Amino acid sequence: MKTREQKKQDIDILRKEFTGTGNALMISFEGLTVEKDWQLRKALRDAQLNYRVVKNTLGRLAVEGTPLEPMKGHFSGMTGVAYSANDPVGLAKVLTAFAKENAQVTFKAGVVEGRAISVNDIEALSKMPSKEELISKLMFLVNSGAQRLAVALNGVSRNLAVVVSEIAKQKGAEA
Questions:
Q1: Rounded to whole angstroms, how far apart are CA atoms 60 and 76?
Q2: 108, containing H or E segment
Q3: pTM to 2 decimal places
Q4: Which of 38, 124, 146, 174 lies at a C-alpha separation of 20 to 30 Å from 110?
């Protein structure tokens, strides 16, 4: 049994971790085997996401005053919190994929950039392209305009060179 001081330290550690993030998904994993839990933790670790199994009372106290405070009322039963400071889409993708394969994993709540989202929104969030994909699409669009301009300008000079060459051939044939 932990002492009151140890629990206070645990709350402080959790609060520090939760303060640095605005994206989190809360799951229930009742009935999940140890092997499946290990697979979940590995998938989250490989995606560079954080995951903690939290005691409900400590979790309720730890989220107070943090961006994850909207999840406060959902701490009941077996609770795991997956969180990321940068990538809510990646977080939703990893957890949704795992939940589809393992019916024991269910979503309780979610917070994206400090705002509560519904369980249905988590599914929609997982279908969005990742931040990297969006950036690459944006860069393609920005680059394509410049590329088209370069091709058009190059085409004009090429066509001019062809016309001048044809005129020179015609003048050479006349002389």
A1: 10
A2: strand 106-112
A3: 0.72
A4: 38
